[in-house]
Design brief:
The chain is mainly α. It has a four-stranded antiparallel β-sheet with strand order 2-3-1-4, sandwiched between helices. The termini are far apart. This is GGDEF domain-containing protein. Keywords: Membrane, Transmembrane, Transmembrane helix.
Length: about 575
Amino acid sequence: MDLYAFILGIILSITGMGAHAAMSKMDQLNQLVYQSPSLAQQQISELENQLSPSSPPIHAVRLQMLKCELLIQQGEYQAAIQLASLGRVNAKKHDLEQAVPYFNACEAEGQASTGDFKSAMPLLETGIAQAKQFKQPQALANLLRMRGQLDTDQENYLPAMEDLRLALDVAEQYHTQENSWTWPPQAYLLSAMGNLLYASGDLLQAVQYAYRALEQDDAKGKVRHILLLNAARMLRDAGDYSASENLLNEGKQLLPTLSTQLEQAYSYAIIASIEVEKGNFSKAEELAQQSLSTFVRFRQRLSIMQTNRLLADIKFEQGNTAEAVDYTLAAINTAQQMGQQGYLQQLYLTLSDYYENRGEAQLAYDNLQLAFQAAQLANKQLADIRFVQYKARLNREQSAEPTSVNESAILIPLGWMWVLVILGVILPATCLYLLIYRKQKVTTDFSISSRAPIHYQVLELAMNNAKRAQNPLTILLFGLSPTVADDLPTLEEKIKSKLREQDKLVYLSPESLMVILPGTSHTGAQQVMEQLIGRIQPWHKHAIISIGVASMQQFDTSTSLVKRAMASQVSRQKSNEVKLYQIGARG
């Protein structure tokens, strides 16, 4: 062998071994970014200092990618957005196109975390198409997880379920791609599925996924801390207070794994919200104030708004209404600046309820009107976001060749495109129509139409009144057959004939209604349910397909109460404790 060739071979071999070692270290660093961001930051800095002009470009690009995810984990969302943009340019410069979807994922998560969902959705759609094109399951699983989480937040449950199922399947192919880049912990994928089930009312399955997430090998450090807080909230809503308290205490013990002030502030705010549900208002206020101070210092506007709203709830519970109103107005000011119409709707409803209880009818009515206007704009925003999402997905499907990591598992069937059309365009339009209908029915004496799409305001008002008077309150959820959709006025008349003047009938959708029973226990609600069935049966034999019941607990919110009623519907069907009330079978 020629000496020069031999020496060159040695050099290339050593270089190759060094490159392999560097990539192996980055593989370990990927998990550290999620589990211990402070330690990951030190190691990233060390690797950056070791880079030289002769280092392979892939090393620099991957370090940028890891650093971008690190900034997300530390709550530095604007910095992550900027770095993602630079990373895309750098990847394309070095012909590393397969790295681009990872930077799209990082930027999308930064945008979504600051409340800019309209910018996040197209990035997710583009990233998903690129991940399929370049066969990058690590990127694809993360992008599907994020899109599933956003759809969950927007109550777009069917596409969210499909995305999260695909993400879990794709995660099994993490290490089949040529080069590893970055990927989310398996525990986060399972947790996202649990959160979807929790949001849709299936508490039993949600808790099971929460426990599965905690059992994963990568559920360590900060990852485990976040999962513990998440599971503690679920178990409290499920009524298992002892297990919830145990998980919460374990989560608190892991607070030292959070090294930055922003990371700590986010956790303090979550713990504060759980302490509110436990009735520990002083402790909740202390934690929320610490969080707010940090969020203000780092200009985290979305978190400032959310924490002000939490503090308002605490002050209302403590009876300090003047401070509660101040915090509510502060939250409204931030929400207006950010265009967060969904939050504005809820905040205006809070003020409307406050002024109504004080007997200040005009102020209550004014805030109710503002809530209505915010609801209209929120529906428009949601329709715009979903249309942008659908349009981006459709354009990608039409222009891209059908290549993927696993065709049978990853390509989304065309049938889902029509589902997205319905969910993204028709449903918001229907809600808008119902909102307009409601506006025509609102009067200065606050008689609220039973068809009001802002149905939670009615329940929240009833719950607040019941809590102040220390009276029970129970709700009934009725799933209706589509065959009665054309004759809802008759159904309304039949039901109202068995209700008291203080009871409320509210439509959640054309095929679901809620009956609010103030001053009624769970047993009393069961009797009302039987009376309603007996009243409806002679008129229509197949009107009701399922029923759920939930009684208000001390720390219930309107959302948690409705979720428990939905869970009651599911559990009744699964356990057969109470049959589905197919009225035709009762004759």
